[in-house]
Write a structure and sequence with these properties.
The protein is 31% helix and 27% strand. By secondary structure, it is an alpha/beta fold. The chain has two domains: 230 residues, P-loop containing nucleotide triphosphate hydrolases (Rossmann fold, 3-Layer(aba) Sandwich), CATH 3.40.50.300; 82 residues, Alpha-Beta Plaits, CATH 3.30.70.260. The strands form three sheets. It has a six-stranded mixed beta sheet, sandwiched between helices. It has a four-stranded antiparallel beta sheet with strand order 2-1-4-5, with helices on one face. The structure holds adenosine-5'-triphosphate.
Length: 363
Amino acid sequence: MIELSDVRKVFPARRGAAEVVAVDGVTLSVADGEFAGVVGRSGSGKSTLARLVNLLERPTSGRVTVGGRVLTDLDDDGVREARRTVGMIFQHFNLLDSRTAAGNVEHPLELAGVGRVERRRRVADMLDLVGLADRHASRPAQLSGGQKQRVAIARALAARPEVLLCDEATSALDPSSTAGVLDLLRRVRAELGLTVLLITHEMAVVRAVCDSAVLLESGRVVDGGPLTDVLARPHSPLAAQLLPAPALAGHDGDLVRVTVTEAAPEGRVLRTLAGELGLDVEVVGGSVETVAGRRFGRLLLSVTGDDGRLDAALQRLRDGGSLVERAVPGDEPPPWRDEEEPAPEPVREPYEPRFLDAPDVQR
Ligand SMILES: Nc1ncnc2c1ncn2[C@@H]1O[C@H](COP(=O)(O)OP(=O)(O)OP(=O)(O)O)[C@@H](O)[C@H]1O
């Protein structure tokens, strides 16, 4: 379980730059075994939030609890020890070039003082788990991006963490490697009962694997919850990013937004408007997808015909449980582009200070 209670992180002013409030009073709870996403535009505080969970950054104020232990009450030695219960994977893998896949997975176990026989056993188990047993002797340069991330996952899991933090873990991968890594994360979550906190700017990743998500804006949580709740809320800014259907100017008819759930499917809306009323209906945007095992969607219709009949029909549809409303151009922000490059990394302390001893560390 991860619990953040009113957590704030302020980076002090430096070299002429003003102070930055990166995380601004976040309260968040991720249950044992939950797969939770944190999304937001570049600079909204996602990575800082992830680094606060394992105290790579100490919060300026607030409380961080992982697995029942209040990390913010621990001294630096206590935090180093507790950090073993929190694995982390990164966009650029952070593997040691000079070591083989097996050597990389073994590294944190060496640092933790695990004996040689046990180390070897766990390395073999972990490489097997991520499907890379036959590449144990390969060096990172000989592996694809997806394989490197699998090694990084094996390394993160070798110390048997309770929590796995994934910071843009698929952002450097092509779509098929992304799908493979997400499948693997889903599988290890199920097999090992892990709690996963996944930081991403890619909505497709959230739709594919998360049970819940929060939307960060300027360091604050502005929306969130189980995806099945979020996607059923017509005015959710997070749903507008997960299944975008923004109203754009340039359509002849009246715009109607339909929120699609299994309890409120779009069929009745289309049958009523087009079939019963004979209005001219065109789908001008949106999508319907399976998320968290259920069918959800947001559709934007352009409806041409008698205005008064349309209003009466929308009211009747709402009374019958359909989620419909008039939309006007610009009433919700356009989606962030999935391919949007995250901003350059700010200078940060490394994941594991002792990795710095290695001359070939990649960051
Ligand atoms: N070590 C640091 N020192 C100063 N400012 C920092 C530091 N780390 C992050 N920031 C600032 O905090 C804000 C949030 O940054 P953060 O990297 O957490 O956002 P993000 O949502 O992860 O962005 P991205 O998706 O681009 O990685 C930004 O304004 C960033 O410049």
